[in-house]
Amino acid sequence: MAIQRHIFQINIIFILSFISSYASLHDGPPYNKYLQQESGYDFEAYPSYYSTIEDTKFKNSAKLQTRIYGFKTFQRLAASANTINVDDFGAKGDGTHDDTQAFQKAWQKACSSTGAAFVVPQKKNYLLKPIRFSGPCKSKLTMQIYGTIKASSDRSDYNTQGNHWLIFDSVQNLIVQGGGIINGNGKIWWQNSCKINKALPCKDAPTALTFYNGNNLIVKNLKIQDAQQIHVSFEKCVNVQASNLEVIAPEMSPNTDGIHVTDTQNIQISNCVIGTGYGYNLRTRSWNQLSIGSLGSGNSKESVSDVTVNGATLYGTTNGVRIKTWPGGSGSASNIKFQNINMHDVMNPIIIDQNYCDQAKSCTQKSSAVQVKNVVYQNIKGTSASDVAMTFDCSKSFPCQGIAVQNINIAKAGGGAAKALCNNVNLQKIGTILPHCP
C-alpha cells in the first residue's frame, strides 16, 4: 500500500551542529498562565478559537510534554509475556548474515500469538533488508529491542519495498522499546544524494522506521541512528506515545529528518534527544528547529490543526518556531500554540512564511494559499542571531488571521533591539511584545 504524505504533517526539523546548537525540553513549563488569565485579554476578539486552545480541550493534538516511563516496568511486562526470540528462528546477529527471514518468521509467530514479546537479544548486531511487520495481530504485542538492528547497505535491496526499511503496518496495541539501537546505515544513501552531489538526480531515500495505520502505539527507550533519510515516521496513526528516543545522524547527512507525523491524531512526543541533518523534538543540536510544514507544495491541499509545543530551549538554531507554506496551496494550519520557549542566538526565532519556495526557480505569485489562522505565541524570550527576531510574511490573498502574541521578549544577540517584519497579518498583542510590528 502506498503511503501518502499529506493532510496532517508536522515536520519539526533539525540539523546537527557540533559546536553550540542544541535544544532541551524542561521537566515542566516555567509558566502556568494562559491567555485567559492575563488582564486585558479580550475573549470577544477570538471567542471560538480561544475556547478551543485550552489544554484540556484539545482532542486531536500533537503535544510535547514531559513524561518519564520506568524501564523496569517494561522488563516485568516482557518477563510475563510469551517470549519469541529471533535467535530461535535462525537469526545470527553477527552483523554480516542476512537475518531478514528469521525476523519475518519470528514476527509471524508473535503476531499470531497471545500476549507475545518479540525479543531482539542484547550484544548482537542483526543485519536486515527491508521488512514489513504486518498486522492486525491476535492481541497486544511488545517488541523488546535490546541489541542492534542494522540496515543493509545494498541499495538494490530496497527496490521492492519502496521508501521504507522497517515498517509496522496496521498493527494495533503495540509497544516497541528496550534500550537497543536501530541503525539505518545511511552513509551510502547520503553519498548518492543530490544534496551532496549536484550532478545526481534527486531521489527519496528510505525511511528507517515507519508506523503506518496503527492505533495505541508506544515507542520508547530506543536509539535510532544514521537513517537513510527520515528516521521515524508516524502515518495515519491514532493514540501514540513516543518518548525517551535518541535520534542521531552526522551534521552533513542530507535530509535525515528526525520524526515525521502525518495524518495522525492524539500523539505525544516527549523526552527525546535529536541531532540529525533535519529533525523533530527537543534537546538537539540543530539547524531548523520546530517547524510545521512545508504545506501546500505542488498546489496541494493540506491541513494541520491542534498542535501544542510547550517548554523548549533552543541554542544556535537557524529557525526557532516556524510555520511554512508554499504559494498556490490550499487548506489550513490552525489552532497552534508555541509556549514557554527560550531562544539563544537563534537566527529566525519566530516566523510564519506563507511564501516558502525551496526550489532553484523562483515561485510565481499565486492567488491561493494555505490559510494560517488561530496561532498563539506565548512566553517566548531570548536572543536573535539576526536583526529580525519576528517575521510574519503572510499571503496577500489569504492573510494570517487570529495570530496572538503574548509576553514576547527577544533582543538582538550581543545587545541592541531586534526588529519585527509583519506583512498581511491580523495580530492580537497581549502583555509586553519585543520586538513589535511597526
From TrEMBL:
GO BP terms, alphabetized: cell wall organization
Pfam families attached to this UniProt entry: Glyco_hydro_28
Subcellular localization(s) per the UniProt record: Secreted, Cell wall
TM ranges: 7-25
Principal subcellular localisation of the protein: secreted
GO molecular-function terms, A-Z: hydrolase activity, hydrolyzing O-glycosyl compounds
Keywords in alphabetical order: Cell wall, Cell wall biogenesis/degradation, Glycosidase, Hydrolase, Membrane, Secreted, Transmembrane, Transmembrane helix
SUPFAM superfamilies (alphabetical): Pectin lyase-like
Hydrolase as UniProt keyword: yes
Keyword Transmembrane: yes
Protein family: Belongs to the glycosyl hydrolase 28 family.
Protein name: Polygalacturonase
Organism expressing this protein natively: Ilex paraguariensis
